[in-house]
Task: inverse folding
């Protein structure tokens, strides 16, 4: 009986396209049949009944991509066609990488109208929210109309350090080097203005996701040398947090390259101390599961949150800087990263993590945000969270995020997993905005990520193709 009940929801979701068919329930565990990985023990019988009811609805729900407007659907199909064919993607990736380096006016993506038009109509519009406020607001409106809980908005300006030369490059080089020596740093000022403009575009319940390295050399030098950031930066960030709170929004601080990470984490902890005081996280740090040190970093930050009595905001990613972060700091295999990711999620949702929540030791209030395109991790987390709620066991809040233009099947699939009150999980899309030049580095990372996740890109491509066929059939038959 128990096994049957455990089998039903996953099988139904597999049929509905929410969970890929490679998943099976084996001995009461959710297991990926292609990798053999066991993700999580299945929920208890009573919770399975509830989940079965909820997911029965998912089984009869329309395909996950049916919520996409036709224009977006067709553009997504074009981009995934390129991304899922190496022969098309490799040259596109080379061209994009070539254009990220300054090459004079003729090849400047912001000045050459032909290059600008072509990139805008393809990759830019697929992955980015817009170059100016009105376009960004339109994109946010479209995203929210699909039923997603809200958006995570990022201003694209960032610093990229070339690990081979150790040289630092600013995505937007409009400020002369001398200006960084004056007392009020123009880089910080420009970053502050850009981020505050982003805050203005947020609605209630949305997230801001700032990249701190966008604030320029004084800030990145402070991060890499372990020094405090300039007072101007601290004040700018404090002002940004206040404005976010006034909007009833929240802030997910991005994790960046390892050399800057300690500084980013410490500065964000300062903001958590001040703003996470009412039993709810307003400010979150991002932790990269691919780093071997991450489980102990999380434990150390939990300890601080516990001692100082603030809510711990934990955004968990696998990590996007494999090409630039020192390889020895990163798990040896993808499987190790997956295991680290899933075990952190389990620990936090079960409220037993590295000694916290065990032997009478309190588990600090922790809000979890899972930024992932990995459906195995996302569904396992959702299942576990629901199971614990049904069983009346302690657990934390968990929400999910995917990047715009990627893993729509995961986002809209998660939305179909409603609970017994017909409430969908909190799913957000992360939108990056900025000029074409500012967004190029981001675009290259997305194209590379699609190339590396070939099977997922192909799954997404096939699902989009099926949806296009379904719409064509609906018109003619
Ligand atoms: C909303 C959102 C916000 C994000 N914010 C950040 C951020 O602030 N900072 C950041 O760094 N990233 C961020 N990312 C990107 C994220 O870190 C991942 O690169 C990306 O999401 C792919 O990982 P995945 O969990 O979706 O799953 P998968 O595609 O299953 O995993 C791919 C990831 O596994 C890891 N990996 C791959 N091969 C190996 C290997 N051989 N050995 C060890 N590990 C390996 C890498 O981290 C790779 O990115 C964000 C992603 C999303 C969706």
Result:
């Amino acid at each position: 009986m128990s096994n049957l009940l455990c089998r039903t929801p996953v099988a139904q979701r597999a049929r509905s396209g929410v969970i890929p068919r490679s998943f099976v329930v084996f001995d009461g565990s959710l297991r990926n049949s292609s990798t053999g990985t066991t993700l999580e023990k299945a929920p208890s019988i009573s919770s399975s009944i509830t989940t079965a009811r909820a997911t029965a609805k998912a089984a009869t729900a329309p395909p996950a991509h049916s919520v996409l407007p036709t224009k977006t659907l067709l553009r997504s199909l074009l981009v995934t066609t390129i991304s899922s064919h190496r022969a098309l993607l490799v040259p596109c990736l080379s061209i994009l990488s070539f254009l990220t380096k300054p090459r004079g006016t003729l090849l400047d993506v912001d000045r050459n109208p032909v290059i600008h038009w072509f990139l805008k109509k393809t990759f830019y519009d697929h992955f980015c929210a817009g170059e100016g406020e009105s376009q960004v607001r339109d994109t946010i409106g479209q995203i929210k109309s699909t039923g997603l809980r809200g958006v995570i908005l990022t201003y694209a300006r960032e610093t990229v350090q070339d690990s081979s030369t150790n040289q630092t490059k600013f995505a937007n080089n409009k400020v002369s080097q001398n200006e960084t020596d004056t007392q009020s740093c123009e880089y910080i000022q420009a970053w502050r203005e850009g981020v505050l403009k982003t805050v203005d575009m947020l609605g209630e319940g949305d997230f801001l996701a700032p990249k701190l390295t966008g604030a320029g050399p004084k800030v990145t030098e402070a991060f890499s040398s372990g020094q405090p950031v300039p007072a101007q930066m601290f004040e700018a960030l404090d002002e940004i947090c206040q404005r976010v709170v006034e909007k009833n929004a929240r802030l997910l601080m991005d994790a960046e390259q390892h050399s800057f990470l300690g500084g980013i984490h410490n500065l964000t902890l300062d903001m958590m101390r001040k703003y996470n005081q009412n039993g709810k996280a307003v400010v979150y740090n991002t932790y990269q599961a691919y780093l071997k040190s991450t489980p102990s970093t999380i434990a150390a930050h939990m300890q601080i949150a516990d001692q100082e009595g603030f809510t711990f905001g934990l955004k968990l990613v696998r990590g996007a800087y494999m090409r630039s972060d020192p390889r020895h700091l990163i798990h040896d295999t993808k499987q190790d990263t997956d295991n680290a990711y899933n075990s952190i999620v389990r620990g936090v949702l079960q409220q037993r993590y590295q000694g916290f929540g065990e032997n009478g030791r309190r588990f600090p209030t922790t809000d979890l945000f899972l930024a992932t395109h990995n459906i195995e991790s996302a569904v396992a987390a959702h299942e576990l969270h629901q199971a614990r709620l049904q069983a009346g066991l302690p657990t934390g809040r968990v929400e999910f995020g995917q990047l715009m233009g990627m893993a729509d099947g995961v986002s809209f699939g998660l939305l179909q997993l409603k609970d017994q009150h017909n409430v969908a999980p909190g799913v957000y899309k992360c939108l990056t905005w900025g000029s074409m030049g500012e967004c190029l580095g981001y675009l290259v990372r997305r194209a590379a990520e699609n190339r590396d996740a070939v099977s997922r890109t192909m799954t997404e491509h096939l699902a989009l193709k099926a949806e296009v066929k379904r719409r064509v059939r609906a018109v003619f038959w």
User: Anything to note?
Assistant: The longest strand covers residues 397-403.
